[in-house]
Amino acid sequence: MAEPTAQVKLKISYFSTIFFDILTRSLHFVKRMIRKAVFVGSYYKLEEIPADRAQVAFGGRSNVGKSSLLNGLVGQKKLARISKTPGRTQAINFFLIDDRYYFVDLPGYGFANAPHEKREEWGRLVDAYLNTATQLRGLIFLLDCRREPNEDDLMLLDWIEKKDVEFLPVLTKADKLSRSQIAKKRDELGKVLKVLPVPFSTISGIGVTEILKWIDKRVSR
Ligand SMILES: Nc1nc2c(ncn2[C@@H]2O[C@H](COP(=O)(O)OP(=O)(O)OP(=O)(O)O)[C@@H](O)[C@H]2O)c(=O)[nH]1
Ligand SMILES: [Mg+2]
User: Fold this and answer.
1) How far is the CA of 80 from the centre of ligand 2 (A)?
2) Alpha-carbon distance 168 to 193, whole Å?
3) What angle, rounded to 10 degrees, do the helices at 116-132 and 151-163 form?
4) Ligand 1: does its nearest atom lie under 6 Å from the Cβ of 61?
């Protein structure tokens, strides 16, 4: 049989490089994928909150899409309750992920229509949790891609900086803006936050792999 020409050999090596690159990436993705996610409980009191495993919390304004992101990451539509009514998640909700660590769905802040006492109560609980969570490995800080960070967002950011906790900013509802608008927003916010935000959308699924990779690194330490 005739020997393949140099050009054919080059092509074979080019395609095998691409093939192995795709294979390696897929294997990495499968390794990081969440296989099991179970609701553990809703907590209203600090004393009851589990502290036996590593935790990754989801924080941000009410209605920003915390519960939706959590569902998107675990690949289940209804694990965390999603609502059109802001302020749906009122307790701190814990989900056990792959029997290894917890996702912590925090109540959203800045829900304008809530009665004053209720707002204070939520604020106190989140504040108390964040100040005592020794197992907290990282915080996913959600910002709506169409809005400017408000006073409440800056307060959470201030807390993050003081506590020196690792955080990942996520721009939610990325399907609502064009690619170039998202890129612009990402750069602008990246400069303010000093960490480049990851765009996420429940509709396109953009961002899932990158966010899972970030989480996996924090809980594997
Ligand atoms: N188009 C679009 N809508 C989204 C996306 N993520 C969330 N939403 C919608 O935004 C609304 C709020 O979503 P939730 O996930 O309940 O928000 P939350 O931050 O958990 O809200 P609270 O629990 O009230 O603090 C719902 O109507 C979702 O369907 C997204 O990526 N794209
Ligand atoms: Mg919620």
Assistant:
1) 7
2) 10
3) 20
4) no
Q: Are 108 and 70 in contact (CB under 8 A)?
A: no
Which of 61, 63, 182 to mutate to test ligand 1, by most ligand atoms within 8 A of the CB atom? Answer: 63
pLDDT in tens, 77-100: 899 888 776 655 678 999 999 999
Sequence length of the chain is 221
Residue 143 three-state SS: strand
Query: Which residues, chain by chain, have CB under 5 Å from ion ligand 2?
Result: 66-67, 89
Place of tokens 């197992």: 135
152 in contact with ligand 1, CB cutoff 6 A: no
pLDDT digits 0-9 by tens, 34-93: 999 999 999 988 999 999 999 999 999 989 999 999 999 999 989 988 877 665 567 899
- Answer whether 132 contacts ligand 1 (Cβ < 6 A): no
The contacts of residue 174 (CB under 8 Å, 6+ apart) are: 145, 182, 199, 200, 201, 204, 206, 207
Q: Say how many C-beta atoms besides its own lie within 10 A of residue 77's C-beta.
A: 11
Ligand nearest to the CA of 60: 1
- pTM: predicted TM-score of the whole model, two decimal places: 0.85
Q: C-alpha 98: how far from its chain's center?
A: 16
Amino acid letter, residue 182: I
